[in-house]
Amino acid sequence: MTYRQVILALSIVFLLYFSGLHFDLGVLVIRPADVLLSAMILVVLAEAVSSGSILTIRIKLGRVAVLLGVFVIYRFFNGLMQADFTIALKELVQSMLIVGFALLLKHFCHTVQHRDLIFKHIRGLLLTASLLLFFYFLLMGQPFGFKTFGPFKHLYALAALFVLDRFLTKPSPSISLLLASVMTIVVFSGEKKGWIALSFAAGYLIWEMYKRASARKKQYVRLSLASVVFVGVISIPILLPSTPYVVKQLNSLSEVAQMASSRIFQDPRVASIANRVSFSSRSNISRFYVLSTAMDQVQETPLFGIGPQNLKPLVMASSPFSWLDPGAHNDYLNTLVEYGAVGLLLQLLIISILFRYSVYLKKSTVDPATKQQITFIQALLLFGVVINGFFGGSDALNLLYLLVPMGLLFSIPNPHTGADNHANDKYASDCR
Question: Rounded to whole angstroms, how far apart are CA atoms 425 and 3?
Answer without folding.
Answer: 11
